[in-house]
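Risk mitigation, structural track. In case the binding assays with manganese (II) ion fail to produce interpretable data, a predicted complex structure has been prepared as a fallback.
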Amino acid sequence: MIIGFQQNQRMKHKISLHKIAEKKNGRPLENGSISANKSPNSLMLIAGPCSAESEVQVRKTAEAISLTGVDVSYFRAGLWKPRSQPGTFEGAGYKGIDWLKAVKRDFNLPIITEVANPQHVEMVLKNGIDAVWIGARTTVNPFYVQEIANALKGVDIPVFVKNPVNPDLELWMGAIERIEKAIQAEVFPLHRGFNMTGNSRFRNRPVWQIPIELHTRRPELTMICDPSHIAGDRKYIYEVSQKAINLNYRGLMIETHIDPPNALSDAAQQISPALLSDVLKRIQLRSTTEIKPEDSPKLSKFRERIDELDFQLLDLLKKRMDVSSEIGAWKQNNKVSILQPERWSAILKRANDYAAEIGLSSEFIDQLFKAIHDESIDRQTAADVGKLINEYGRE
Ligand code: PEP
Ligand code: MN
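Fallback model:
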């Protein structure tokens, strides 16, 4: 009885991100909806399963999400699934559209699904789907993106453009522009991480610098994050979501399933509706207003210290690279190969061990040292090339 009462109460007083923010920061923030999205402090939430698997799974997921009272801007479910391996579940296809329409009708939830070709676009438009996303494997190909843009010409439903699987900012921005030229409604960059080599606890590396650069170039765009495909594992969903919010993203797409372990796609990264509600309660929204130094002397002290340290870092890097150039010249004179794999492995191991000792993340140090090593090889190569140019110059 008590449980029933609590559920009723929750239904009446929806736990919206608006309320969460008020509670945590004592500052009113608007809840996530397309219209509210114009406000700098609003947050959009897209939740639902990776794939629409069956009528019952779609309906139960939507019902359970509604019962939590979480304020959802769009209910997501993929109908056509781009799977790496043939023979895995490739989505319910067109027949699933009726399941999504039923969710919209019965739970009053706007619907979003993925489109990967003009036929998909035609089917979703004919059936009143409220928004679409373009997947990472589609964004990589400007031909596909243009075909989708042509099929969407003149429509006024929002389109979310996922980053391409490879870390190429221009490709992502180009796809966004193609869609912007075609449609009347808003286009949202949707960051889902990049498929890259190297150690990472995440399925797709976030490479936050890329979306940050996109937002720096196009500050008027509203950044949305897909922590599910970045994380690949439900235990990191909260962490990635909070990081995105800290970086001024204004929306999250979180894969939510009624029975995550038995999902037919992306089982490891999906979360239950109860966990979704939990994650959202823990997320702390931050003010996106720029703080001027005169507003906080403490913050300006921190910034001064950071600026000073950054210069010291740059000076150190310059010294490091000057030594690389000298080694390059020495190796050239002694006809020794530039890449010394054993020495390089030892450097990386030593850096990682020391980083662990002083509390720096091994992902960060790995990336930093690889970048330093790349530049160092370029310097050493430049010493060779420089010498050659001089020799040719003498001829
Ligand atoms: C998805 O959202 O389920 C999906 C297939 O995403 P992505 O294109 O990011 O892999
Ligand atoms: Mn998925």
